[in-house]
Every structure is written in structure tokens, then in C-alpha cells.
Amino acid sequence: MDLSALRQEYNCEGLIKKDLALDPFHQFEKWFKQYTQANLPEPNAMVLATVSERGEPSTRLVLLKYFDKQGFVFFTNYKSKKAKQIEKNSNVALLFPWFPLERQVKIQGTASKISITESLAYFVSRPRGSQIGAWCSHQSTVVSSRSILENSYEELKIKFQNKTIPLPSFWGGYRVVPKQFEFWQGRSNRLHDRFTYSSTDDDHWSIDRLSP
Question: At what angle are helices 128-136 and 146-159 packed, to 10 degrees?
Fold first, then answer.
């Protein structure tokens, strides 16, 4: 299948260094707000890349649930493939594919589990159906049919009826602490604007333009 004719020209406003925030978290928040204010879908959807013990990469889409100067937090089953890979190698990468605005944000850093207290605070804020879903899914394991999942869900729904659903011991959050950010803005003729923020020893960030 020949895809050579599929071309998208990027014509949005460019990105110059003097317009960047000195702090990459502030720059990320600015772009995040612009995406959400444009009423575009899934602003918090991000690609999470992990690596196995054998150096084999793996990617999947997860949802960013909150972020601050401490890092970027997402939630998952601690027995999932991603969790097992993070346990062996905490180096991860995130990618926010904000293509409607002709932008990408890449983040490299390390992931670690957040506290049970912090996981619980988020868990109780989830819809009840999502809470039950966390209990009935043995994420990344083989399941012979969807009916098994649905039956498990219904059984747990009855079990927890009129009860507070507890936080599963195998479920919780990870915080990705960034070491490097890249902000990518599409430009015409493939001369894209790319800027990296790299963490320095004195808790500051150096900013460099990259060739596209």
C-alpha cells in the first residue's frame, strides 16, 4: 500500500525561544490549556513507552490524571505489563500527540509508585463502575472471552452493593518525574520548531533549539 501521497502541510504559528516559559511545567500547562480550550478530544491521552529487561520497547495510550511540579501521574494495575516493566526499568517516555494544533510534547523521565493514600484519594473520585472495573480486570493477562469479564463485573457489582468499594491492593498510580521535555510545533516545508528543556544540577532547566 503506497502512502506517499498522504501529506499534511503545517501552517500554524511558529514557536520561538523568547516566547517559551523558563519552566517546562509552565509551558506544558500553557499548551494543555490551549488544547482543552479548543474543545478537542482527549487532551490528557498520552503514549507511555516502557522497556523490558531484554530492551524491547512497548507503548500504549494511558490517561494523565494530574500533574504539577512533582511530575505527571497516571493509574494502572500494578500487575500489568507496563507495571512489571517499570519495576525492572523505571526509565519511561511520554508523548502527547496534539495533532489538531500541529503539536507534540515529549517527556523523558523516571516512574515510581505514588503512596497508597494518594492512590486512594483518586480511586474514591472515580465513577463506581470504574472502581468495579479495576477489581475485575486482571490487566494484560489472557482472557478467553468477554463474557468472563462481564460476569466478573456483575458478581462484584452484587458483592459491593450498598458498600464502599475498597482500593484494590494491586491498583494505583505512578508519577513520572521528568528529566527532559521537548515541545514540537509543526511548520511548513518540514522545518518544524523543536525545543528541549534539560534538567540541570542546580534544579534549573536549559533550553535548546533542535534541528527538525
Answer: 120
| DSSP-based three-state secondary structure for 123 | helix
Catalytic residue among 7, 128, 190, 209: 190
Alpha-carbon gap, residue 88 to 69, rounded angstroms: 25
The number of CA neighbours under 13 Å toward the Cβ of 71 is: 19
- Whether residue 62 contacts residue 24, with contact meaning beta carbons closer than 8 Å, is answered with no
Stretch (H or E) spanning 197 = strand 193-199
Which pTM does this prediction carry?
Answer: 0.92
Is 190 one of the annotated active-site residues of the chain?
yes
| Separation CA 185–CA 18 (nearest Å) | 15
Q: Which residue is listed with cell 474514591? A: 124
- pLDDT tens-place string over residues 49-58: 999 999 999 9
Residues 186-210: tens digit of each pLDDT: 988 889 999 999 998 777 899 999 9
